[in-house]
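User: Okay, second chain of the day. Same drill as before: sequence in, structure tokens out.
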Amino acid sequence: MSLPSDADRRTLTDSLVDLYINLDRTYAAASRDVRLTPQQAQLLCVAEHEQPTLGRLAEALGCDKTNITGLVDRAVKRGLVERCNDPQDRRVTRVEMTVEGRRLIARFHQSLQRRLSGIRLGQGLIAADIDAISDQLGTAGDPPSGSPPR
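Assistant: Same drill. Structure tokens below.
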């Protein structure tokens, strides 16, 4: 198997940028459908599968912990999440979804699914391929091996 050419790499990069822009726009529209900001929807998507720490949320959302504090404060004020102490370490604060948060994230998923329902996957492209691409992109933001620490 030959390595991709520079032109192939540019095409892939351009395609991924277009995909990101379109997915981001769709995600934002689905968020607005249920009166969430895209960041609140991201927070709830993480919190529906775990009780993340503020540090874990910052990592998952790709922002600084200081930004997460305000985001969580606003979500608490709306009744979407609650702060709770970690039972293993009382110094650690975790975020837990409320019933209202679960209700809204379910509506968000329905809206997103409705908006994506018209998409037809290309010939031979299946959900497993998308998962594999997503997994690989999940590490693309990591520093290249051998890079000096930040």
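Residues 14-117 form a domain with the Arc Repressor Mutant, subunit A fold (CATH 1.10.10.10).

User: Thanks, on to the next one.
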